[in-house]
Amino acid sequence: MSEINYWRIPYTQLPSLGERYPQGSSIKFRCMTVNDLKYMASLKDENADEMVTDILERCLKLDGVRFDQLLRMDRLTMLFFIRTNTFLLSNGFQTEFDCPHCGSRERQEFKMSDLKVKKITESTIHDVDMVDELGICVSGEYKTFADRVYHSPDPLIDLILNNTDLAHWQDMTVEQWTDWIYNLPADKVAKLKRAANDARCGVLGYVDLKCSKCRKTLRVGVDISDKSLFNKAKLSVLIRNKIQISKYCGVQITDDTPYNEVELTIAIVNELSEAEARSMKESKNGAKK
Ligand SMILES: [Zn+2]
Questions:
Q1: What predicted TM-score, i.e. pTM, was given to this entire model?
Q2: How far away, in angstroms, is 105 Cα from ligand 1 center?
Q3: Per-residue pLDDT tens for 48-81?
Q4: E strand or H helix at 107, and its extent?
Q5: Residue 140 forms part of a structural domain
Q6: How remote is the CA of residue 231 from the centroid of ligand 1, in Å?
Q7: Count of structural domains, the chain
Q8: 163 lies in some domain
Q9: Distance (Å) from CA 29 to ligand 1 centroid
Q10: 37, 235, 236, 268: which sits with the fewest CB atoms below 10 Å from its CB?
Q11: Is 146 part of a structural domain of the chain?
Q12: Residues lining ligand 1 (ion), CB within 5 A?
């Protein structure tokens, strides 16, 4: 087995710009292997966050910085590096939408690098005075991997809990926090929302695309959840690729083989077998004449 390669993720490409990581530290990544993809084949809504975090931990090689010190705002960008280099031939995204200007039904492809990113330099941390309600001062906050991630049915609750230090003040469930926030005066909720929005950084869930009919630019929302990012790991495809490769070129794919090699080999195998089929057809036709 050959040794697996790791590549450095330049800090300049992370939303945090690496500003909060220790001096001299570095983050490297490797591609996902066949084994990683087998693991991801059981990805569901309920376990997506946990499984994708596992994969991130497996595929990163950290030097001078701990996994739990990494910032949440950098998580998607690091996953994009892994995903883009694992699926070399199929790392694009597809989106379908109706153009609000001309009604055209659009189906377009875009790359992950087309998604808008908010860098740490475009964010601000500020306080919200909550003296009447809790006797505290809530502040915007950059969360690390050590911090709990809140998921609720209301995006506003998630925004506030995941981008301020509110949840540090009391140990409550997400349902209790939801009730608590719903009972606040409207102006306090608005201030909390602003503090959270101003602190929030990272990959934003939308992309600017041009309508193919009227050429107007549209802002299209994109599902960048963990589940949709790695939904391509289908076990049946993996097994078929493995068989096809060993049948056509005798190369054994093991669990440690980086998946980008599998994908490229499959593309070559397909090309060769098509060429073979073509030449067989031609020689048959030639024999008939
Ligand atoms: Zn249009």
A1: 0.86
A2: 8
A3: 888 999 999 999 999 999 999 999 999 999 999 9
A4: strand 105-110
A5: yes
A6: 29
A7: 1
A8: yes
A9: 40
A10: 236
A11: yes
A12: 99, 101-102, 104, 211, 213-214
